[in-house]
Amino acid sequence: MIYKNRLKLATDVSSLFPESWTPELIAGFLEKPKQKKLGHISLPVFRLSKELKKAPPLIASEKAAEIENLKLSYVEKAEAASGFINLFWKTDFLLETLQEVVEPEKIGYSKTGAGKKLIIDYSSPNVAKPMHVGHLRATIIGQALRNLAETQGYEVIGLNHLGDWGVQFGKLAWSYNKFKDDYDFENSPFQSLYDLYVRFHKEVEEHPEYEAEGAKAFKALEDGDEELLKLWKMFIDISMEQYKKTWARLGVEHDLVRGESFYSDRLDAVVKSLKEKNLLVQSEGAWVVELDEKRPPCLITKSDGASLYATRDIASALYRMEDLGCDLNLYVVGNEQKLHFSQVFSVLEKMGYEWAKNCHHIGFGLYRFKNVGKMSSRKGQVIKLDDVLNKAVEMVAKRIKEKNPLIKNKDEIAETVGVGAVVFNDLLNDRVKDVEFDWKKVTDFEGDSGPYVQYGVVRCKSILKKSTEVKTEFLKALEHESEITLINLLLEYEHTLKVSFESFKPNYLATYLLDITKAFSAFYNNCPILSVDDEDLKKSRLKLVEVTLKFLEQGLGVLNIKAPDEM
């Protein structure tokens, strides 16, 4: 149910509860019952047990009866079940609300974040390395969260925090000068660059002294060596050209590119500030900020004075929050960096920045492929992002050829459905958990998959194409159980967007779209649409198809997934 209706209900029943239960608090407690037979909306009352000195089932029974006695015009009935008050809406109220919801061009959008600026760091590959499945997760989750933030009214800056600085660039530059003639930089610049990166780490196994050469080159790069700077810029250009092709394929956009190098001239100020605040401690020649017994110190500079990830991330946070004036600062980076961000945010707190509490690490788990060990870009053992997308598109193309061999634009549809399948599969999983990547499940047209939801869109479009009716409003009450279930689910869209953003978990929206598609399938199978004799009923059911299509298309759009016209 849209939030204002939750708040209306909460306001109307608040007099039945203790003063501490404000309408806003009650609205926040409302939830969707786990089974549709239990009602349209549910209010748990377990929190009242201690205050009222009664068992939750007794409280629920008493309060359900009191709500019934209010005779609210939009509530059909209120029932108690264990410690829950389950409420059923009246059908005309559902239809009126749905009609109201779909009138704006962008359904479900909120003004919660109006006037606030949010920056989100996502994808952010490391120069000279191909984007692998880890970047796939960072890219997909990040773009979805960016889109979700926009549904809540935030001004959003999508940031590409490009990994374009660090000792690896000294190693790469040194390797380029030593081994470049062994590679075809003219015809295969990016692959040559990556092969060179891998080669350095193989050479080090036999020539450990090369490590010192790489570190020396990076120090020279930091000190402004012109020839090394030219090489470094070339490496970035080669890499960005490759990355842009992949981002375009995924429909991913960044508003700002700020590589780690951008903060180079800000690092001295960070170190100076830490010293002035008496936070720096010397340890074995390096400078660190001590934290607590549970965490190691945060390393700020190495013994040779070279900067580190933490130094650059502190400078980056200051730039985002102070210079850009952001209210929220999100980092979509794998779970393995949890300690790093915990250290960085703690240092910022110690520096006295209250906004440090608004910096959030949005961690995610790993992909698990059968018969594939842990990835290592240094050894060249990576599952490339583009290879994953290509395989999904290939599998979908084969399926389309089997199911609909005469369809036009096969390649375009296969690309849309294949890429969408990979994106949806990722977002359907709780981001903090590892994902077991099952190719058959990912590209299944009938299971809990992206293609299944996309096919729901195609089915809606097909029905509407066969009708010449003008679908402007609901002309007749829809009373079939399948209709009511679908309508009530549609009305949860705004709340789902809100919860998905506030938890930073797109899987809530992905699961919701699956539920909508399943509910629509039940409606389609149980309620004749084009063949029904009652014209008003036909028009109302067509309207419901039209509305469902709008929700599915916009919901998929928030997840950054396209929907084809056919498949």
Q: What characteristics describe this protein?
A:
Rossmann fold; 13 strands; 5-stranded parallel β-sheet; single chain; 3-stranded antiparallel β-sheet; Isoleucyl-tRNA Synthetase, Domain 1; Gyrase A, domain 2; 567 residues; alpha/beta
Overview of this protein structure:
- The protein has 567 residues and is an alpha/beta fold.
- The protein has three domains: 87 residues, Arginyl tRNA synthetase N-terminal domain (Gyrase A, domain 2, 2-Layer Sandwich); 252 residues, Rossmann fold (3-Layer(aba) Sandwich), CATH 3.40.50; 120 residues, Isoleucyl-tRNA Synthetase, Domain 1 (Orthogonal Bundle), CATH 1.10.730.
- Helices cover 52% and strands 10% of the residues.
- It is built from 21 helices and 13 strands.
- The strands form four sheets. A five-stranded parallel sheet has the order 6-5-4-10-11, with helices on both faces. Strands 1-3-2 form a three-stranded antiparallel sheet. A three-stranded antiparallel sheet has the order 7-8-9.
- α5 crosses α18, α7 crosses α8 and α15 crosses α20.
- The longest helix is centred in the middle third of the chain and has 25 residues.
Global shape: globular
Per the CATH scheme, the topology name of the largest domain is: Rossmann fold
The rounded Rg comes to: 28 Å
By CATH, the superfamily of the largest domain comes out as HUPs
Proportion of residues in extended strands: 5-15%
Main beta-sheet annotation? 5 strands, parallel
What's the mean pLDDT score? 92
Number of helices: 21
Q: Termini separation (Å)?
A: 32 Å
Helix/strand/pairing class, anyone? Answer: alpha/beta
Considering DSSP H and I runs of 4 or more, what fraction of the residues is helical?
40-55%
User: How is the largest sheet built, in terms of strand order?
Assistant: 6-5-4-10-11
What's the total number of strands?
13
Provide the CATH top-level class of the largest domain. Alpha Beta
pLDDT < 50 stretches: 373-378
The total tally of domains equals 3
Per CATH, which architecture of the largest domain?
Answer: 3-Layer(aba) Sandwich
